[in-house]
Amino acid sequence: MNQPVNPADIHKVIIEQQKARNRKKMMVNGVLFLLLLAAPFMMYPVFLMKILCFALFAVAFNLLFGFAGLLSFGHAAFLAAGGYTTGYLLSNFAGLSTELGILAGTATATVLGLAFALLSIRRQGIYFAMVTLALAQLVFFFFVQAEFTGGEDGMHGIPRGHLLGLINLEDNLNMYYFVLAVFIGCYLLVQRIVSSPYGQVLKAIKQNEPRAVSLGYNVDRYKVLAFVISSALAGLAGSMKSVVFQLASLNDAHWHMSGEVILMTLLGGMGTLLGPVIGATFVVNVEYQLSQGPLRDWVDPILGGIFVLTVLAFRSGVVGEIQKLVDRNFK
Amino acid sequence: MTRPVLEARNLTKEFRGFTAVDDIDLLIREGSIHALIGPNGAGKTTVFNLLTKFLQPTRGQILYRGEDITPLKSAAIARKGIVRSFQISAVFPHMTALENIRVALQTAEGSSFSFWRSGSTLHKLNDRCMELLDSVGLAEFANTATVELAYGRKRALELATTLAMDPKLLLLDEPTQGMGSEDVDRVVELVRKAAQGRTVLMVEHNLSVVSKLCDRITVLAQGAVLTEGDYQTVSADPRVREVYMGSDGSGERGAEPPTDPAEEVAP
Ligand SMILES: Nc1ncnc2c1ncn2[C@@H]1O[C@H](COP(=O)(O)OP(=O)(O)OP(=O)(O)O)[C@@H](O)[C@H]1O
Ligand SMILES: [Mg+2]
Questions:
Q1: Which of B13, B14, B45 has most ligand 1 atoms within 8 Å of CB, for mutation?
Q2: Quick one: which of A202, A284, A292, B178 is 20 to 30 A from B220 by CA?
């Protein structure tokens, strides 16, 4: 029954399949890119930018949750840290080029992420989630108390400024294409990370941590790196968001926001690349549509209901379920 | 006598007052296949966990080629060449067989933090992966997700993954557990092959496997060393037969006492 096998042949098949998968990925990327390129001519750019910022936030969160298996309940802290830092710098240093403000916001979130990671990474499962939540609450209270944040009122009128001192970002289309470029860059980066040599190790740690340890991996270090990259990208999302809306508020730091990004990721499909993007798009749309109608006071319960339904019936999320269907019927 | 590769002195592990491993001395000689046997709950897995630092010993010392490795972490011990397997099959289920092995090779390859590099830089390890898969008869499953492999094949893959680390000392926790006799024979051959140029310490309930493979046997009972010696000596020891009988008379998995080879020929 066993065919004599030639390892070289099997290897060739593996490489071919890999190439086919890469081609498929490039195609999906291409379609997504074209759609997003044309989108501002069909929809209001500020709304699209909101979707992109949240999509980036969810992609960042999913790198940690979906690919490293670590459920952080404190990612709002990074979104807010990025937003407030960028907002503060752009408001107080006139003439500061926008991208520098954004970089500084990202850097702040990265450092904060490193601190969170070092304090939480040794905890397992629910304890890890609890430590991240507790730390994020500390950060929240800091933002409530600190004067520069404007407390309950938030930070208003953040100037969008100029990109590289040249491109006027007050123009919504300019702003949109800048946000899009950042989003695509980050999306491709995460795609790269997931399939990199490091991504393989991360996958192994997620699937069987003791085994990874027994193969000589110092698993905490790999997890810390994932946490730091994730918090950096979450901070970047917050920075972009504060520039787009010219506003940074306590909403971004609230634990509610940490929950929302979990919802987006689960809904779209954790551990898939496109899932968080679709989840974020869906949630932002539902929130917007509901807030326009008679159900405006019911946004949270309705999202909560959708959450419960997802967790109970569509564990793998939209993208995950579609992938399953495709695998079942076309293989 | 060859020199010891691994030595444990006064090794003790207490779990909230319960002593699972009680003041054990253990000497593993270079090039030997050493068995650790004993009834269920004797503390065999706990000893493995202590030697590889998956558990922190309450007391005692572990020496590897004379060097005190007691303070090292699990990952560092693995990188020194002491690689363990697990009692329950330990694979990366949603990776292919080839990727399972490649993860082990990556430790030494040194790119395991390169998150910016393309995954295709790992292809240079594939030839070695195929060799290792071939050596355990799994070449044709290279591209199969590990969850889909039959149990015996998962365990073979696990062994190949362990060997990919090129360990100096192999710790195998019940490599034949839950296998049919055909698979058991295959594992015996694999371990024999793997043991060439290496030292092996294995926990094994199947005593025919022990008699075929092992030069030296340590018998544990209730966390302490009951006796040690070659198969002849150990199986003839009445105390050994007693703990096996006493622990579990129902003849469940792995609880059968060792048989004296001399008795077997009697009518
Ligand atoms: N983490 C732990 N906490 C408390 N008790 C433990 C722990 N690990 C093991 N024990 C106890 O220590 C004793 C020895 O367990 P161990 O798993 O080492 O036995 P074993 O010899 O490997 O048995 P088996 O043949 O069933 O695998 C058992 O009584 C077990 O209940
Ligand atoms: Mg055991």
A1: B45
A2: B178
B43 CB near ligand 1 (under 6 Å)? yes
* Nearest chain B residue (CA) to A194: B115
B189-243: pLDDT as tens digits: 889 988 999 999 999 988 888 888 999 999 999 989 998 888 888 888 888 888 7
- The span from the CA of A308 to the CA of B9, in Å, is 54
- pLDDT band at residue B83, thresholds of 50, 70 and 90? very high
Contacts of B86 in chain A (CB under 8 A): 210-211, 214
B39 lines ligand 1 (CB under 6 A): no
Q: How far apart are CA A269 and CA A239, in angstroms?
A: 25
Closest by CA to A250, choosing from A157, A135, A140, is: A140
B59-64, strands of its sheet edge to edge:
B18-29, B4-15, B59-64, B67-68
Residue B135: closest C-alpha in chain A: A7
pLDDT (0 to 100) of residue A4: 55
Distance (Å, whole) CA A318 – CA A329: 17
Rounded Cα distance, A145 and B178, in Å: 61
- Domain boundaries along the sequence of chain B: 1-81+168-267, 92-166
Render pLDDT for A280-327 as a digit per residue (tens, 0 to 9).
999 999 888 888 888 778 888 888 888 888 888 888 888 888 888 887
Q: What pLDDT band is residue A88 in, cutting at 50, 70 and 90?
A: very high
A positions 213-232 inside 8 Å of B (CB) = 213-219, 221-222, 225, 229
Instruction: Look at A14 and B142 and tell me if their CB atoms are within 8 Å.
Output: yes
Any atom of ligand 1 within 6 Å of the Cβ of B41: yes
Q: Which two tokens stand for residue B133?
A: 């898969």
Question: Does the CA dihedral A17-A23-A25-A28 come out positive or negative?
Answer: negative
CB atoms near residue B237 (< 10 Å): 18
| Separation between Cα atoms, residue A30 and residue B225, nearest integer Å | 66
Closest CB to A211 among B86, B106, B127: B86
Planar angle of CA A42, A43, A48, nearest 5 degrees: 130
Ligand 1 contacts CB of residue B28 (under 6 A): no
The domain limits of chain A are: 43-253
The CATH number for B1-81+168-267, chosen from 3.40.50.300, 3.40.50.2300, 2.40.37.10, 3.30.750.24, is 3.40.50.300
Sort out which chain B residues have CB atoms less than 8 A from A18's CB and list them: 120
CA end-to-end distance (rounded Å), chain B: 38
* Residue in A211, A220, A233, A316 to test binding to B, most B beta-carbons within 10 Å: A211
